[in-house]
Design brief:
Layout (H helix, E strand, L loop, with lengths): L2 H4 L7 E3 L4 E3 L2 E2 H5 L5 H10 L5 H15 L5 H12 L4 H9 L9 H9 L10 H17 L17 H12 L5 H13 L10 H11 L4 H25 L3 H11 L15
Antiparallel strand pairs: 1-2, 2-3
């Protein structure tokens, strides 16, 4: 092998030849199509391994949990974009996904990054996790940062998706150190009479960390999930449109006040 060949870029994701297609070392048509569900292939793509049955069940549940939960900002952005460009559904789906950040969808990644700042042993005791959680919470408080994965504008005491995901993880014996640590972080933040719930993004990020999903893939998993929900919203938009109504509602209910003093540099 020449030096030039040794230095060529590599990929382990996939390749096509005249006779076959290979994905992560598996023949696409023989080994994957009809044998592995879409979530399993996504897991394969981001971890380079096929999931076992328990992992498949939990990973599917995480994807289902984030697919849709109403007229969220991502759904509204997609519907409004579709109103202006119904000939390009890809643009509307993209518009809905572009808002995946620290408040919506990006919580998967933010939570994972927080948890992975510390390497936690799989057999860590609750007392150890409690101490680590206290340190994490204190650090975020000193830096004036909001702890990702906690709180929800609708589910004030418990997010039903979190309850179900933890139930499935317990059944499949897949509650690992990251998930346990996230639960201790919740306890460290909560006070008597003021419970701060873990949200779906927070528990999803923790569970995916325990499943061995790379931190760089966490937000991407959330986006794949939400894309399914957005397509559903856009199909509905073609039959019972909301986009024009949203536009009209904003136009009729937002008062125009001319220049805003808060935007005037002279008011600083």
């Amino acid at each position: 092998m020449t030096t030039q060949q040794q230095q060529r870029p590599t990929t382990s994701i996939g390749r096509s030849t005249a006779e076959s297609i290979e994905v992560c070392g598996h023949d696409l048509t023989r080994d994957l199509m009809g044998e592995v569900d879409f979530a399993g292939v996504l897991f394969l793509l981001v971890t380079q391994r096929l999931p076992d049955p328990g992992t498949t069940r939990l990973f599917n549940a995480v994807l289902v949990a984030l697919a849709d939960h109403g007229l969220t900002p991502s759904a509204l952005a997609a519907r409004l974009t579709y109103t202006g460009a119904p000939e390009a559904i890809q643009g509307a789906v993209s518009a809905g996904l572009l808002g995946g950040g620290s408040v919506f969808l990006g919580v998967f990644e933010d939570t994972g990054r927080m948890l992975r700042t510390i390497t936690v042993s799989p057999d860590a005791q609750d007392s150890d996790l409690e101490s680590i959680a206290d340190t994490l919470v204190d650090d975020y408080a000193k830096r004036g940062k909001r702890i990702p994965g906690l709180g929800h504008p609708v589910h004030k005491t418990a997010d039903p998706r979190v309850t179900r995901l933890l139930e499935i993880a317990e059944q499949e014996k897949l509650v690992g150190p990251n998930t346990r640590l996230m639960q201790h972080v919740q306890r460290a933040v909560s006070r008597p009479g003021h419970l701060v719930p873990i949200n779906a993004g927070g528990i999803g990020g923790a569970l995916l960390c325990d499943l061995g999903v790379d931190t760089a893939a966490l937000r991407g998993v959330a986006l794949v999930s939400r894309a399914a929900g957005l397509v559903g919203h856009l199909v509905e938009e073609t039959h019972t449109p909301l986009g024009r109504w949203l536009w009209d509602t904003a136009e009729h209910n937002v008062n125009y006040v001319g220049s805003s003093a808060s935007l005037d540099p002279r008011s600083a």
